[in-house]
Structure formats: C-alpha cells, structure tokens
Amino acid sequence: MSSLTEKDRPIVQLLLNTGTCPRCILRFCCVGSQTLYRCPYKDLMKDLKEFLKNNQEKEDTVCSDVVDPPCKRIRLEHTEERPDDLNHNGALQQIPSVNNENTAMENSAVEVCNVCLGILQEFCEVDFVKKVCQKVNSADYQFTSFVFSVSLPPQLSVRERAAWLLVKQEMGKLGLSLAKDDIVQLKEAYKWIIHPQLSEELGVPADGKSLFEVSVVFAHPETDKECHFLATACPDCFKPAKNKQSVFTRMAVVKALEKIKEEDFLKHFPCPPGSPKNLCVALEIQCNNGAVFVAGRYNKYSRNLPQTPWIIDGERKLESSVEELISEHLMAEFKADSFNFSSSGREDVDVRTLGNGRPFAIELVNPRRIHFTAEEMKGLQQTINDSSDKIQVRDLQLVTRSAIGRMKEGEEEKTKTYSALIWTDEAIRKEDIAFLDDIKELKLDQKTPLRVLHRRPLAVRCRIIHTMKSEYIDEHHFRLHLKTQAGTYIKEFVHGDFGRTKPSIGSLLNRTADILELDVESVDVDWPPTLDN
C-alpha cells in the first residue's frame, strides 16, 4: 500500500473501525492512483490491515515529525483553528476509539460500507459488469465507444458529509486538516474501477465524448429518509419541480449540505454514519445512442396530404402526411425510439411542392443502428419513393446537428417561387393583367391570416413580392408565377383575406379574386448538398 503514508494511518484505522470499505478509505486518504482502486476488494482489505500492522510502532508519530513533505491535499493548520468544538452537542460521541488495533481489524469485516452503501463493493465485481454488458448487448445497438454515467442515491452525499466531519475531527487532533473537496469523489472512483472492465467486456473504449451512453441508476430504499432532515433545516433548497418524483434530488441535497452549518448537521445525523443492513440496488441499466440526423428534399404531388399529421381534438382528419410517409421507413431502418421532423417552411394540405423540392431534416432519437453507407442511404431513398406516389425524396443523407441550422438560418431572407391558378368574378382580358409583369419588389403588409390565427400570434408582417409573371387562360382564369420573400402568405395575397393583406391581387385588379390551385415551384435554400442520385 505504497500510496499511503504515516499521515494516513489515523484515517485508515478510524474508518475501518466505523465500517467503511477499503476503497472509500482510499478516497478519504486522497489516493489518486486509479490502478489501486481496481485491485480486488479482498486484497485491498488485506493490504490495509498489513499497513496498520506494519506501522503500529509509529502510532504516536505526529505529522510535523514526518520527513516527507505533507500531501498537497492535507494542510497544516494553526492550533487555534482545530475543530475541537464539533462535539459540543454530543453528536460525535459515537466515534469509536482508534487506539484499539484489534477493534479496527474486527470491524473491517462489515459487509456493507457505511459511506458508499456498497457501490464500491458489490457493484465493482465482475458479475455486475457482466450484467451491465448483457443488457447492452441484448439491446442491439451499434457503437464504437461508450460513455458511462451513474446516478447515485442522494443520501450518499449526506453520509459522505458525516464521514468527512468524522475524519476532519480526528485530523484536527493531529494539527492537520482535510478539505471536503480534496476527497476523491465517489463517482470518479467508481468510474476508475468500472471503465476498464466494461471496455474489455464490450470490446470498445470508454470515451467521454461518445454518443453512446450506458447508464446505471442506483437506489437504497433502506436509507431513503436520511435526507429528510435537510428539508426542515434548509426549506429553500427543496422546491417541487415538474417531472420530479421527489424534491430530494441530488442537486437539492448538495445545495442544502453547502448551506447547513456543521453543528446543525451534527444535531440531526449520526457521525459516523451507521452501517446499513442492505446493499444498494441497481434500479435501472439503460442504453441510449445520441440522435442521428437525416436530411434531404421532398416533393409533394398530392393536394390532399398535409405536411404533418392533421389531428383536431384528437381526431385524425387525413390518413397520412409527408412526415409520416418519410419517417416510417427511417424509423424502421435506424431502429429509433422516436423522431422529430423539421423543414424549410411548410405548404398547406392542398398545395403541391414541385421542382427540386423542399429541404427537410429528421432527428432520429435513440437509434440502434447508426452506420449507413452512401449506397445504403440511396437504397433507403428508393424504398421511400417506391412506397407512395404522393411524395418523392431526393438527396437523402446523414448530416450533423449543427448542419441543420443552415436550413433555418436566414429563412425569411430566402426566396420561394410559386405558381397560382387565379379566378376572378369579372371577366378579364390579357391586357388587364399584363401590368402585373412590370411590378417589382412589391411591399405587402400582411396581418396574421384568419386561417392560422389559432396557432400564430397576431402581428403585421412586411413581406416582398420580388417579381410576377402572368399567363392568361380565359376571361375568368389566369396563372400567376411569383417569386417572393420566404414567409409570404400567397393565398392571402391573392384574395386579400378581408383586407388583412394589402395590397392584394384583388385590389390591384379592382375586382374579386380567389386562388384555385397553388404550387411551390422552388425553395431557394442551398441545403442539403445535392447528391448524384
């Protein structure tokens, strides 16, 4: 046990005496050697006993007599700063004598650690590692690395505080101090032990930046109520929050522990903490892959197909949507839990999208499969196109999360071209509409249309019609080709929306006009990159 020095002997003997496991003892001795924590539990216990036995003759040595300089994590304190007053209320009277070597040896066999509640004992063993890996392998994820996360019971923070106060008092008797932040964190020590084992068993490295997460949630029902006294001492730290089953979250407990005075803590919680009867339990072992993003462009050829599911008051109005026709195939191939669909604008249910199509992106949440070749993506695109005559997709490709921002950035500055079939109540001649071709950069004031007022805030938006080109059909019909600023409401520009859009085609022609058909001919967003399809 070369990492321990004579300065650590009082801590080792004290904590062994009170039912603390070897690895937690190393943490409180500020041992930063990862390999030491990975030693078998029985070997660590044996080494700690040997350490005490071999140094028994030096029991009365004080830190000021040690030849080696003090550990940087343990600082000498002035005598007047010794925390001898911590036991003024009797809370520390349960500390066993550290002078009885045999007692320390006997109590070191306590089955469940009074600090980590077994996290650094049973849950570091190969059986638990295999259990985690079986869960991962059975979930059938694709991954090339992993990040391991662990959720610990909040009462562990309370027990750690009690153990620290115990050690701090003992160190104070020797004129030394141990800062709380100098103790090796339980999560950190656990990951030092578990990472190499998981990595070897799974055959991939641990990587803090990995998108594949393996998580374990621990609980200890036997000691669940140990945090409750903090709610009385620090009520401001425990406020109900949405989606939280209990106010006693780890963050709330840590915040309360930072706020509560040591003497108040010692009035309510035993120091040292008592030894529990049972180990922690692993409530959940979960896997989660970071989202994968797929982008492309879609054409919509149906005038009876919404972009997203059309559901009103829980009732579906139409059987499908652009979103669903594309995503159902992606969900099946990527084996994802769910998806989020976004696009560069949207068309109405009765509007077609032609030309090069409308850019879209789909976020696939927690996908099991993440690796696709260009050929496989091309095959997936073909599968989507073969499944329906209502839509077609092109340029289907994997993209990054950050790249999706390019689809949205400057969206209102982009242009879109439309083709509208217009009806007028009064007869028109070709020369009656010819002047429209000469209008450039026509500024509109568009009050939020009545048809979307239920889902969009009331506002007046300034939009621009860059160019128009008319195509006479008969005395009551003509087609108008428009190039507009993105976000322009074309239908309202035609009929005026009861005067809410000014000017309008109706006001320009000085007659009633309405739109019969509308097609999006192009969405001028240079994304995603064009592929050789």
Automatic annotation (TrEMBL):
<dbReference type="GO" id="GO:0005739">
    <property type="term" value="C:mitochondrion"/>
</dbReference>
<dbReference type="GO" id="GO:0005634">
    <property type="term" value="C:nucleus"/>
</dbReference>
<keyword id="KW-0479">Metal-binding</keyword>
<keyword id="KW-0539">Nucleus</keyword>
<feature type="domain" description="Pus10 N-terminal eukaryotes">
    <location>
        <begin position="113"/>
        <end position="287"/>
    </location>
</feature>
<keyword id="KW-0496">Mitochondrion</keyword>
<keyword id="KW-0413">Isomerase</keyword>
<keyword id="KW-0963">Cytoplasm</keyword>
<dbReference type="GO" id="GO:0031119">
    <property type="term" value="P:tRNA pseudouridine synthesis"/>
</dbReference>
<feature type="domain" description="Pus10-like C-terminal">
    <location>
        <begin position="293"/>
        <end position="524"/>
    </location>
</feature>
<keyword id="KW-0862">Zinc</keyword>
<keyword id="KW-0819">tRNA processing</keyword>
<dbReference type="GO" id="GO:0046872">
    <property type="term" value="F:metal ion binding"/>
</dbReference>
<dbReference type="GO" id="GO:0003723">
    <property type="term" value="F:RNA binding"/>
</dbReference>
<dbReference type="InterPro" id="IPR048741">
    <property type="entry name" value="Pus10-like_C"/>
</dbReference>
<protein>
    <recommendedName>
        <fullName>tRNA pseudouridine synthase Pus10</fullName>
        <ecNumber>5.4.99.25</ecNumber>
    </recommendedName>
</protein>
<dbReference type="InterPro" id="IPR020103">
    <property type="entry name" value="PsdUridine_synth_cat_dom_sf"/>
</dbReference>
<dbReference type="InterPro" id="IPR048742">
    <property type="entry name" value="Pus10_N_euk"/>
</dbReference>
<dbReference type="Pfam" id="PF21237">
    <property type="entry name" value="Pus10_N_euk"/>
</dbReference>
<comment type="similarity">
    <text>Belongs to the pseudouridine synthase Pus10 family.</text>
</comment>
<dbReference type="InterPro" id="IPR039894">
    <property type="entry name" value="Pus10-like"/>
</dbReference>
<keyword id="KW-0175">Coiled coil</keyword>
<dbReference type="GO" id="GO:0160148">
    <property type="term" value="F:tRNA pseudouridine(55) synthase activity"/>
</dbReference>
<dbReference type="Pfam" id="PF21238">
    <property type="entry name" value="Pus10_C"/>
</dbReference>
